[in-house]
Amino acid sequence: MALNLILMGLPGAGKGTQAQYIVDEYHIPHISTGDMFREAMANETEMGLKAKEFIDKGDLVPDDVTVGIVKERLSQPDTEPGFLLDGFPRTLAQADALAEMTDVLNKPLSAVINIDVDPKVLTDRLTGRFICKTCGATYHKLYHMPKVPGTCDVCGGHEFYQRDDDKPEAVKNRLDVNIKMNTPLVSYYDERNLLHTVNGDQEIDAVWQDVDAILRSL
């Protein structure tokens, strides 16, 4: 049976890692929105060319074009054993369009995996990164501190900085935007009995054990 999945979770929840595990174990393509756009534009598909017009102007790609690109991608033969969608759908309109599309393609969704982590924990994860000003080595206040406090392991420098998008106010804003976007989708898939929520605030391997158990039960 084909394994047709959506992977959901807030920034920092560990989606990328779990996506890689799923792809390695179940041999289905990981389809992220960014990759899809790049591929469609590189291949100059009809929808890819349309998307390029908007992207070149710095505009958001409208839903009908995004949906068209997803449909083109899900029609490709490598999705026969299944697929893992990441970054789509983002809105209820896109979720409805996906339901229609999977119906037409006869590739119904098997499950929606939502990796759930407390936003406070995510804030700590996402704001913890800091970088050596001299050599660019990356550290994290929770997971990877320099061996000698205040001294870079690589070059011995003593000056560190934080990227703007890792600063608390930027992280809070990014999480707020994503919570607002994800909450209706979580309800949407819950109502359709497709939602499986996994506690993402565990060791990576424990999260994977939970995800794998869900996939094996389908």
UniProtKB/TrEMBL annotation:
<keyword id="KW-0547">Nucleotide-binding</keyword>
<feature type="binding site">
    <location>
        <position position="152"/>
    </location>
    <ligand>
        <name>Zn(2+)</name>
    </ligand>
</feature>
<dbReference type="Pfam" id="PF00406">
    <property type="entry name" value="ADK"/>
</dbReference>
<comment type="pathway">
    <text>Purine metabolism; AMP biosynthesis via salvage pathway; AMP from ADP: step 1/1.</text>
</comment>
<feature type="binding site">
    <location>
        <position position="202"/>
    </location>
    <ligand>
        <name>ATP</name>
    </ligand>
</feature>
<dbReference type="GO" id="GO:0008270">
    <property type="term" value="F:zinc ion binding"/>
</dbReference>
<keyword id="KW-0418">Kinase</keyword>
<keyword id="KW-0479">Metal-binding</keyword>
<dbReference type="GO" id="GO:0005737">
    <property type="term" value="C:cytoplasm"/>
</dbReference>
<dbReference type="InterPro" id="IPR033690">
    <property type="entry name" value="Adenylat_kinase_CS"/>
</dbReference>
<dbReference type="GO" id="GO:0044209">
    <property type="term" value="P:AMP salvage"/>
</dbReference>
<feature type="binding site">
    <location>
        <position position="94"/>
    </location>
    <ligand>
        <name>AMP</name>
    </ligand>
</feature>
<feature type="region of interest" description="NMP">
    <location>
        <begin position="32"/>
        <end position="61"/>
    </location>
</feature>
<feature type="binding site">
    <location>
        <begin position="138"/>
        <end position="139"/>
    </location>
    <ligand>
        <name>ATP</name>
    </ligand>
</feature>
<feature type="domain" description="Adenylate kinase active site lid">
    <location>
        <begin position="129"/>
        <end position="165"/>
    </location>
</feature>
<dbReference type="InterPro" id="IPR027417">
    <property type="entry name" value="P-loop_NTPase"/>
</dbReference>
<feature type="binding site">
    <location>
        <position position="33"/>
    </location>
    <ligand>
        <name>AMP</name>
    </ligand>
</feature>
<dbReference type="InterPro" id="IPR007862">
    <property type="entry name" value="Adenylate_kinase_lid-dom"/>
</dbReference>
<feature type="binding site">
    <location>
        <position position="38"/>
    </location>
    <ligand>
        <name>AMP</name>
    </ligand>
</feature>
<keyword id="KW-0808">Transferase</keyword>
<comment type="similarity">
    <text>Belongs to the adenylate kinase family.</text>
</comment>
<feature type="binding site">
    <location>
        <begin position="59"/>
        <end position="61"/>
    </location>
    <ligand>
        <name>AMP</name>
    </ligand>
</feature>
<feature type="binding site">
    <location>
        <begin position="87"/>
        <end position="90"/>
    </location>
    <ligand>
        <name>AMP</name>
    </ligand>
</feature>
<dbReference type="InterPro" id="IPR006259">
    <property type="entry name" value="Adenyl_kin_sub"/>
</dbReference>
<feature type="binding site">
    <location>
        <position position="135"/>
    </location>
    <ligand>
        <name>Zn(2+)</name>
    </ligand>
</feature>
<keyword id="KW-0067">ATP-binding</keyword>
<dbReference type="GO" id="GO:0004017">
    <property type="term" value="F:AMP kinase activity"/>
</dbReference>
<feature type="binding site">
    <location>
        <begin position="12"/>
        <end position="17"/>
    </location>
    <ligand>
        <name>ATP</name>
    </ligand>
</feature>
<dbReference type="Pfam" id="PF05191">
    <property type="entry name" value="ADK_lid"/>
</dbReference>
<keyword id="KW-0963">Cytoplasm</keyword>
<feature type="binding site">
    <location>
        <position position="155"/>
    </location>
    <ligand>
        <name>Zn(2+)</name>
    </ligand>
</feature>
<feature type="binding site">
    <location>
        <position position="129"/>
    </location>
    <ligand>
        <name>ATP</name>
    </ligand>
</feature>
<feature type="binding site">
    <location>
        <position position="132"/>
    </location>
    <ligand>
        <name>Zn(2+)</name>
    </ligand>
</feature>
<dbReference type="GO" id="GO:0005524">
    <property type="term" value="F:ATP binding"/>
</dbReference>
<dbReference type="InterPro" id="IPR000850">
    <property type="entry name" value="Adenylat/UMP-CMP_kin"/>
</dbReference>
<keyword id="KW-0862">Zinc</keyword>
<comment type="function">
    <text>Catalyzes the reversible transfer of the terminal phosphate group between ATP and AMP. Plays an important role in cellular energy homeostasis and in adenine nucleotide metabolism.</text>
</comment>
<feature type="binding site">
    <location>
        <position position="163"/>
    </location>
    <ligand>
        <name>AMP</name>
    </ligand>
</feature>
<protein>
    <recommendedName>
        <fullName>Adenylate kinase</fullName>
        <ecNumber>2.7.4.3</ecNumber>
    </recommendedName>
</protein>
<comment type="subunit">
    <text>Monomer.</text>
</comment>
<feature type="binding site">
    <location>
        <position position="174"/>
    </location>
    <ligand>
        <name>AMP</name>
    </ligand>
</feature>
<keyword id="KW-0545">Nucleotide biosynthesis</keyword>
